[in-house]
Amino acid sequence: MRDGLKTTGAVALVTGGIVSAFALAACCAIPILLAGIGISADWLAPVVMASQPHATLLTIVSLVALAGSVITVWWAPKHCRPGAVCARPGFRWTLTGAAVVGAILLILSKVYA
User: Cβ atoms within 10 A of the Cβ of 51, count?
Assistant: First the structure.
């Protein structure tokens, strides 16, 4: 697999994981957090209505995407050309951090649901 495809795939996976975790957390966790800092969360109502019937599927998609992104990113340096984006430690740590944010959103969505 080409290095650019690995990089793009890992970014797409972590983005998908965060988006699906956000959709799940939109019902309860995010409004509670936003209200705690004084921000209205009324704009999340359409996201909540759209995501609730698909909560199980979104949970599975989020778990698979977040895990897949971390596995892809940490496995890639063994198979990337030196100096490629997928071989850089900063890229790996940034994507891993984004996956952790997605995992936190997913956990909060389950705790506050």
Answer: 20
CB-count burial class (<10 Å; 0-12, 13-18, 19+) for 20:
buried
pTM of structure: 0.74
Measure the CA–CA gap between 107 and 31, rounded to whole angstroms.
15
Give the pLDDT score at 16. 87
Give the integer Cα–Cα distance in Å for 100 and 104. 6
Kindly list the distances between the CA atom of residue 22 and the CA atoms of 5, 7, 39, 104, in Å, as whole numbers in the listed order: 25, 22, 17, 10
What is the distance between the alpha carbons of residues 75 and 99, in angstroms, rounded to a whole number?
A: 15
Structure tokens belonging to residue 25: 């957390």
16 vs 29, residue with greater confidence: 16
Tokens of residue 58, six digits: 């979104």
